[in-house]
Amino acid sequence: MVPSPVVELNKAVAVAMAVGPAAGLALIDDLDARGVLADYHLLPATRADLLRRAGRHEEAAVHYRRALDLATTDAERRYLARRLAASGYSPPRDGDPISIIRSTD
Q: Model-level pTM?
């Protein structure tokens, strides 16, 4: 039996908690490369959280923004907006998603 992509995402979280963020990110990279959860907000949200835990706050902000754009409920959007604000970075909505503008708020 092959696990579903969501089960694989949950495994990435468990691995990250047991081994460290880098190990979980490697599993997420595989999921992302396959495109199986391309429109699922929890993929970039999970990546963002693991990047944050790894101290990679600028990269995390990019993925929090992506998750925020994909989120379907107000509660999820509020949570992700708080996480994005807490990162101290605000990636622009237009243009290159990798360029980061340091938030002055």
A: 0.83
